[in-house]
Amino acid sequence: MEAQTLLFLLSLLLYNFFIPVQSAAVRKRAPSGVPQYALDYAPLVYLHSDDEYRPSNIRSMLRNTQPRVNFKPIPGIPQPVTLDNLDQLNDFGGDSVYLTSVNDVAADSQQAWLKGVTPDATGLTNGAISATIIVNEKDATTTDVFYFYFYNFNSGPPVWGIKFGDHVGDWEHIMVRFQNGIPSALWYSQHADGQAFTYEAVEKLGKRPVGYSAKGSHANYAMGGLHDHTIPNFNLPGAFFLVDDTNKGILWDPTLSAYYYKFDVGTSSFTSYNPASPVNWLYFKGKWGDQQYPKEHEGQYILFGQARYGNGPTGPLGKELQRKDICPSNVKPCWVRPFLTAKLEKE
Q1: Mean pLDDT along residues 46-66
Q2: Residue 230 domain flag
Q3: What does UniProt give as the signal peptide span (predicted)?
């Protein structure tokens, strides 16, 4: 039996064994007020078996970075920077603020803090709150629930053997749209784009949808295997140019260690379901990572307009929490696929 097949069977066995425990754990860990359907249908994520950069404690980013604008430290900012005062950095440069790694990642991308935490057998990232769940009750019948996943480092996949797209910080998400508490469609974020599917179309464990996190880049896919995303919002058959690799590696349950919030569209404000959880960090407009290194920076290169080391991403606030379609507004047309594309590559 192939090792990967054995790993999948073991994951499935563990999932079926622990599902009552997991359900109880979610109810115990999730604060009161969180809609039960947001937990019952929360996506599970397969991390790539060979990905060295795992889900990360959101607070750990702040302990290992220094806010900068134009590569220069910002004088007069709150000390220390925490999730409770992160929003105050908006007064020192707004979206020009970058949470910049104290130690240059071009010189050392093997820093321990970048590696994150490997989930245990129950899918828990022990000691690390590595996910954020945001509930947007759009109207009396429609609710969008965003499941955000945080990683301290994004390792871009090589293009014809050349690395592009590495950066500190990585926010990815799957969004589930509910109609009267019933899931209707899902959005899987993939780099600056993504794909949408009906709930019926996607793979599930029990009734929970499954996502596949790509090796290094952590783009979310609805199925395992290789994904050529040279054309945005469309996976080409086979592997040609821009390729993400996914497989049934380690099963992660982000709900077991997450912050839970409600988003109010009218006031563009967040309320925590747990009064003890920090809220202010969600209003930070800057970037979760380094500013793109200039071309003369050691280890940096820019080819075909693409940099080896790019900018860090925006946080959840920058992911269009209020959207008309299941897709963000930059995705046209918004095709909600009623089926999964046939697998043309082995996982």
Answers
A1: 98
A2: yes
A3: 1-23
Helices (H), the chain: 3-29, 36-40, 58-63
Measured CA to CA, the distance from residue 301 to residue 306 in angstroms comes to 8
Q: Residue 160: pLDDT above 90?
A: no
Whether residue 226 lies inside any domain: the answer is yes
Distance CA 110, CA 87 (A): 29
Task: Please report where in the chains the tokens 């077991």 appear, as a residue.
Answer: 256
Task: Establish if 28 belongs to a structural domain.
Answer: yes
> Tell me, what's the pLDDT at 227?
87
Instruction: Provide the 3-class DSSP secondary structure of residue 215.
Output: coil
The token pair at 22 is 């997991």
Q: What gap in Å lies between CA 156 and CA 64, rounded to an integer?
A: 21
CB burial class (10 A; 0-12, 13-18, 19+) of residue 2? Answer: exposed
pLDDT at 198: 98
- For residues 131 and 147, give the distance between their C-alpha atoms in angstroms, rounded to a whole number: 7
Q: What Cα–Cα distance (Å) separates residue 114 from each residue in 4, 52, 61, 110, 213?
A: 26, 9, 9, 7, 17
How many domains is the chain partitioned into structurally? 1
Are 65 and 105 contacting, i.e. CB atoms less than 8 angstroms apart? no
Q: Is 6 exposed, middle or buried (0-12, 13-18, 19+ CB in 10 A)?
A: exposed
**Whole-angstrom Cα distance, residue 199 to residue 222?**
11
**pLDDT digit string, tens, across residues 100-134:** 999 999 999 999 999 999 999 999 999 999 999 99
Contacts of 301 (CB under 8 A, 6+ apart): 295, 307, 308
Residue 179 has φ and ψ, to the nearest 5°, of: -115, 115
Domain coverage including residue 116: 3-337
pTM assigned to the model: 0.91
